[in-house]
Design goal:
This protein has 17 helices and 29 strands. The protein is an alpha+beta fold. Helix 1 packs across helix 2 and helix 5 crosses helix 8. The protein is elongated and about 125 Å long.
Length: 746
């Protein structure tokens, strides 16, 4: 295959699509680039179709550390399982690509996106969607495309106007109050992912409309690239409904409608499964052997049609609620007595327990990814165990769904988390789904708000969330509030919205309907706003504001400022001093490069550690009195420890009243002595005088004459010494001493 390249520029950034040089044995392979961020996207479709009742699509996003010139962390120094960011990017590609395949596709499809180069400027995730679409279409796979994705940020001009930024750099995205990712075709939107700092509904709709225009521009450029390629269309056998089967199954419509009308999830499932077994039993053994998969598909289609028709024609949902009605709520903060913060939130048969744990800033999560971000201090994790849906299954590493829901809840709350200057803690929230019947991610958002407020985290404003649904049938459209699992599975849209009283903080939408207009989206957002407000008020009725203090079980963290030239003193040689403080007090000490010291612990440990640090950095001043300990004795005096790391010199002339021959005659190492600071020179050297001086010990009998003469010389009056020096000296006369050379001065 000849190498084909298409370069283009859109919205101030340069892009490139290439094929025909790399991975030529794949069904389709495309290299997609933005700046020096380069990704290889491959698509392979199996030749055999699978006997499954779902479409087997797998998307993998592979982060290669060589792309950013780094060696992977860990013992093996090799990329292992995907990072959380890699998994979320794979989901970002899967969600708009999956609905573009034809119904009934049962061949395995594997899309692999490999980062070849990342310039740490242009983000690699969104352009992966365009790369996946182009790889499939170059390979002749029959998808409804081209499909593209864009990320939208916004910047406010000086005149107050708003400028949209398409596919912003990392720096541009960081400065924006909106991080909106939208994917779809030129005609309709199929996926939305957003984090926002309280953006209003009208502004969000405007950003979505702009995103749709941008997607159309990228689809046009992708089509220009495809037009340059020689594409051999491929055909795949699709599951097709069999008229005899469909007609027979449709005869059970009334029974299916009756089975669906049950507010209890498990009871409803049991009734529907019992009916499906009855339908299957109505076929002969030969028919079941020949049409087994088609019968199951027809039963599923019947359930979908009955649920949707019920809503469209009667306005009645399976649990009897109105379209905008919220399920019954149960809200309980401080559910766990020993946790730093906790909250139980239940909506219908969806129940989530969120738990907050507070830690030191040095416990932040470090990230080993290709992104510039090194880590995060707000960590939100979501667990979905099998028992929450009454099923059995394996417990292990979090699955893609769990990572995605945790990321959504994290985006919802992150704008409301106080900065580290206001609240110097690492914050971890874990949401445990206790039971699930739809909207568990939104229940996680609400439960986590309760837990944060219960834990005394001073969030800016409380956040609530709701999942919206959509049914489009026979030209009619119904927007559903607070959808449950069945309405998500059989409906046309899953639209999750979180926010405060001031605006939206997060969005997530997966859309199957091609007739979704912006008027319908605006209607859904308005209905979501009303639902969020209702839920939030119920939460505030139980806990009106965050606790004013953290709970007694949580660590207390105090910050103090240390002069940068004193950091070394606090740490000590090889960390000896700081380890000693932590071991003796039980507190944790974290020192920043700017001299900020965070001290955390429980009980009196924090105050004790802070006092130790203050003593270390304190500079004694003249006139201050101390009770110190002799740590060293020299011929000229004794060194006395005043404060941790602070020694002063007590000169031999000041250790006692009168003449002292040797310091050891008066002091020993380890003695306590009361002293006063008399001088601190420019180099920080401290001179001391002893308080309550004892009398000097009497001279030993038999002292040498030399000693006496020496004493006399020292005590000779100043006048005599000055008189002796009155003799005029000749030039060069040095009193008989050999003159020192300059280099001998030391």
């Amino acid at each position: 295959m000849t190498k084909i390249t298409h370069e283009f520029e859109l919205y101030g950034k340069s892009y490139r699509l290439e094929t025909g040089e790399l991975a030529k044995q794949a069904t389709g392979a495309v290299v997609v680039s933005q700046g020096d961020t380069i990704l290889l996207t491959t698509a392979v479709v199996s030749k055999e179709r699978r006997d499954l009742d779902f479409f087997p699509l797998t998307v993998d996003f592979i982060e290669k550390m060589y792309a950013v010139g780094r060696i992977p962390g860990g013992y093996l120094k090799r990329e292992a399982r995907p990072s959380e960011k890699g998994t979320l990017t794979a989901r970002l590609v899967d969600r708009p690509i999956r609905p573009s395949f034809p119904d009934g596709m049962r061949n395995d499809v594997h899309i692999v996106i490999t980062t070849l180069s990342c310039d740490q400027v242009n983000q690699p995730d969104v352009i992966s969607i365009m790369g996946a679409s182009a790889a499939l279409m170059v390979g002749g796979v029959p998808i409804e495309g081209p499909v593209a994705g864009v990320r939208i940020a916004r910047a406010k001009a000086e005149d107050g106007s708003i400028d949209y930024i398409v596919n912003p750099t990392f720096e541009e995205a960081e400065a924006s109050d909106l991080n909106l990712t939208v994917a779809g075709t030129k005609e309709y939107i199929s996926m939305v992912e957003a984090g926002a700092d309280e953006v209003c509904e009208a502004d969000m709709i405007a950003a979505l409309e702009f995103a749709q225009e941008a997607i159309g521009a990228f689809c046009d450029e992708q089509q220009k690239f495809l037009d340059k390629c020689t594409i051999e269309p491929k055909t795949y056998e699709l599951d097709q409904p069999i008229p005899e089967v469909v007609d027979k199954v449709d005869g059970y419509y009334a029974a299916m409608e009756a089975a669906l009308k049950d507010a209890d999830k498990q009871s409803r499932i049991a009734k529907v499964e019992e009916l499906k077994d009855e339908i299957k039993a109505s076929f002969t053994d030969e028919e079941r052997a020949m049409w087994g998969r088609e019968i199951a598909a027809a039963c599923k289609a019947l359930e979908k049609r009955a649920m949707r028709t019920m809503i469209i024609e009667t306005g009645e949902r399976v649990d009897g609620r109105a379209n905008d009605e919220i399920r019954p709520l149960y809200i309980k903060p401080h559910y766990l007595p020993r946790a730093h913060g906790s909250g139980l939130f239940q909506r219908g048969q969806t129940q989530v327990l969120s738990v907050v744990t507070l830690g030191m800033l040095n416990e932040w999560q470090r990230l080993d990814t290709i992104d510039p971000a090194e880590g995060k201090r707000y960590i939100h994790q979501y667990n979905f165990p099998p028992y929450c849906t009454g099923e059995v299954g394996r417990m292990g590493a979090p699955k893609r769904r769990e990572l995605g829901h945790g990321a959504l809840a994290s985006r919802a709350l992150e704008p409301m988390i106080p900065n580290e200057e206001e609240f110097p803690y690492t914050i971890r929230v874990v949401s445990e789904v206790m039971e699930s019947n739809g909207s568990s991610s939104m229940a996680s958002t609400c439960g986590s708000t309760l837990a944060l407020m219960d834990g005394g985290v001073p969030i800016k404003r409380p956040v609530s969330g709701i999942a919206m649904g959509l049914i489009q049938e026979e030209g009619k459209t119904v927007v559903l509030s607070d959808i449950q699992g069945l309405e998500d599975f059989l409906g046309d849209m899953d639209f999750k919205v979180t926010g405060t009283t001031e605006g939206i903080t997060a969005l997530q939408m997966d859309n199957k309907a091609t007739g979704l207009t912006f008027d319908i989206l605006a209607r859904a957002l308005q209905q979501a706003k009303e639902g969020r407000a209702f839920i939030l008020q119920k939460m505030l009725d139980v806990i009106p504001e965050p606790r004013h203090t953290t709970r007694s079980t949580a660590p207390r963290i105090v910050s103090i400022q240390v002069p940068t030239d004193k950091i070394r003193d606090v740490i000590g040689s090889g960390g000896k001093v700081i380890r000693g403080i932590q071991d003796e007090t039980g507190a944790s000490v974290d020192i920043q490069e700017d001299g900020t010291v965070f001290v955390g612990g429980t009980g009196e440990s924090v105050d004790q550690a802070v006092e130790r640090i203050k003593l270390i950095i304190k500079v004694p001043e003249p006139g201050e009195e101390y009770t110190g300990r002799v740590v060293s004795i020299q011929p000229f005096g004794a060194f006395v420890n005043l404060l941790p790391g602070k020694d002063g010199l007590l000169h031999i002339s000041r250790v006692a009243k009168g003449r002292v021959e040797k310091v050891e005659d008066v002091l020993n190492v380890g003695d306590e002595v009361k002293v006063v600071v008399i001088e601190v020179d420019d180099r920080g050297k401290i001179s001391l005088d002893r308080l309550d001086k004892p009398e000097a010990p009497a001279r030993a009998e038999g002292a040498s004459e030399g000693d006496g003469e020496h004493f006399q010389r020292r005590e000779r009056p100043r006048r005599e010494r000055s008189e002796r020096s009155d003799r005029p000296r000749r030039p060069g006369d040095n009193g008989g001493r050999k003159p020192r050379r300059h280099h001998d001065a030391e």
